[in-house]
């Protein structure tokens, strides 16, 4: 922990620093807990350009002002929402005494679905002056093609490898690649009913990292959403998918009845059109979770039994979503 950085924080925010705790230090994240005479704070290094940072700060402020619990971002003594030090932007946030949200039962998942639906509905009112941020939003066809190319290369490179976890993944990869191809073709068909211009007009503010480590519960029962670095304009399914994946990891089997209950709760807060629902089913069928776990190396830290259980549940989810798309 650089003394120069802490000295700059003390000056910029008029703080008397007593103690510093390193919370996280990875290629993607550098986070410090700073204990001062004025209280405790969280200092985060932001790996993004200034326009993206301004967008993130304004999104958080917009949602916070409308009742979504998000830690406060403190301004410097120059009335700026962040400071620059050695080429990096840093943000000083409120420290929240809370724990990751526990997904103990279905009611917990439903509660998060209500929160997500409310957040998405509110976000329709958000306006950001720079249109280039909105135009960087959903481009699913390109993302899908890139993901399928990645899976194809991974399959090719691991076809003769005998590590048990790789063999376990290879057992399922053909299904997921066929599913991905089905989704791409179906999305192209949907473009005849809804142009991507129309899609962009219906996009919401998507957290894009909506999992239980980023959803905190304090002693008073308040739910906080943290880590908004990946927020962007997108359709609702990206956040819903992360919620479903958290649910799948906690459950023994894929349960479509629970999914329908979760979606009813979400739709009470944020109504979707028939075409939006069709796109949602397609996106929830796509092998996002398989790609993410391979890229992050998570399968290598799991047993073969754990891999089989997880991919089997996710496969059943994909089948259900494709069936729902065809019926809708």
Question: How would you sum up this structure, described in words?
Answer:
- The chain is of the alpha+beta class.
- The mean pLDDT is about 90.
- Strands 1, 2, 3, 4, 5 and 6 form a 6-stranded antiparallel β-sheet that branches. A 3-stranded antiparallel β-sheet has the order 7-9-10, with no helix packed on it.
- The chain starts with a helix and ends with a helix.
- It is globular, with a radius of gyration of 21 Å.
- Helix 5 packs antiparallel against helix 6, helix 6 packs antiparallel against helix 10 and helix 10 runs antiparallel to helix 12.
- The longest helix is centred in the middle third of the chain and has 27 residues.
- Helix content is about 55%, strand content about 15%.
- The chain has 2 domains: about 90 residues, Phosphorylase Kinase, domain 1 (2-Layer Sandwich); about 220 residues, Aminoglycoside 3'-phosphotransferase, Chain: A, domain 2, CATH 3.90.1200.10.
- Strand 5 and strand 6 form a beta hairpin.
Summarize it:
The chain is of the alpha+beta class.
Structural topology:
Layout: H1 3-13, E1 17-25, E2 30-36, E3 39-46, H2 50-64, E4 73-74, E5 83-85, E6 88-94, E7 98-100, H3 106-123, H4 131-135, H5 140-158, H6 164-190, H7 196-201, E8 204-206, E9 215-218, E10 223-225, E11 232-234, H8 237-250, H9 256-269, H10 274-285, H11 288-295, H12 304-327
